[in-house]
Amino acid sequence: MLLLLLLLQQQQQLLLLLLLLLLLQQQQQQLLLLILLQLLLLLLLLLLLLLLLLLLLLLLLLQLLLLLLLLLLLLRRLPILLLLLLLLLLLLLLLLLLLLLLLLLLLLLLLLLLLLLLLLLLLLLLLLLLLLLLLLLLPLLVLQLLLPLQLLLLLLLLLLLLLLLLLLLLLLLLLLLLLLLLLLLLLLLLLLLLLLLLPLLLLLLLLLLLLLLLLLLLLLQQLLLLLLLLLLLLLLRLLLLLLLLLLLLLLLLLLLLLLLLLLLRLLLLLLLLLLMLLLQLLLLLLLLLVLLLLFLLLIIIIIIVYSLTSSHAKY
């Protein structure tokens, strides 16, 4: 009877371990879905970078327009009113660029927040999985304490619990590191926004001043207008350099995010594989124990049958 009770208990433990393995497989599927969502976010970031490149092309076109204007001034000497209209057009285009850059930065902030939410969701799912494993292994630990015949299995369960606690601490540390990293990225974006807005505002103020000067200096020669247009050209080039710097910083930010996501995925996959290997080892030990108990039960049955047949032969 004692052997039969042990066999029933081992079968229950085997079923419980199989359930844990199924839960780990489901967690791996959820992890793959979250990885796909992160890839979609990275694609959105790439689209934003393409929009920034389009803005750079627009600035290049503005520079070409100014160069053509200089050539026309040198060749034909356009009227001053037409030059004023062209400067107003440039001013409106610069305002449009400013609005587009603000929109791009806001979209980047939103994408970073979405990425932060996805990472938090992933870490919370893993924490819930580990807590579920702890709760499922606690009854096994109590059963092993009640049956002192399986000390080896009890030690393995204790080691597994300690390992799960260490994994919980590790995931909490990773969560804190990710939060710090994302806060740093947000601060970097705010600094970039300031670096972009200040030169653009200065450029707009300068254009307004130039328009006022042109209105006041309608009777001056064409050389002054040429100098003003050259100054605008230089300012546009400065803006182009700033946008190129922003593009490089965004590319670096994208690379950092890719590396962070890659490291996080590798770490999570390694943790899941480690848990599955431990559960499989525990399952193998339980199977060996069940086979040993079956072998002992078979030996006892053979001894009982042999004793009954020998006593019957004596009678």
TrEMBL record:
It is a multi-pass membrane protein. It comes from the Eukaryota. InterPro entries: MetI-like. The lineage of its organism: Eukaryota, Metazoa, Spiralia, Lophotrochozoa, Mollusca. Residues 36-219 form the ABC transmembrane type-1 domain. The chain crosses the membrane at residues 42-75, 82-107, 113-138, 145-166, 172-193, 200-220, 226-249, 256-279, 285-308. GO terms for cellular component: membrane. This is ABC transmembrane type-1 domain-containing protein. The keyword Cell membrane does not apply. GO terms for biological process: transmembrane transport. Keywords: Membrane, Transmembrane, Transmembrane helix. It is found in: Membrane. The keyword Nucleotide-binding does not apply.
